[in-house]
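Moderator note: this is an archived Q&A kept for reference. The question asked for a predicted structure of one protein chain; the sequence and the answer are reproduced below.
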Amino acid sequence: MTCKECIHYNACKFTYIEAFGSFNEEQFGQTGCAEFEDKSRFVEVVRCKDCKYWQDNNGGYPHEECRWGKEETPDADDFCSYGERKEYFTREEVSKMSNKDVKKHYKEILKSMKKWKL
């Protein structure tokens, strides 16, 4: 197994670069790692806030395509097995993101910016 196949890859890489200035993933791939968790064993979920059907709770929630029941009001960090990741973020959504979320969604944000009217 290699570091890139581990669920902790990004966190490890960031931590080692911050602490030591570099990250040699081949070194850990050869010696093994006590914290290794094969990411193929996990399913990535789409949180409500990242779903293309997410709406502000004040905006007539839920969206007609949302699988949550009409009497339910999901929170931003809830999820369901039907969630579909939205293709882009609005300016307002990006401005409210934490630095951690901006790093996580960096590529999607760049794609989103092409759709914004500047």
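Archived answer notes: The mean pLDDT is 79.
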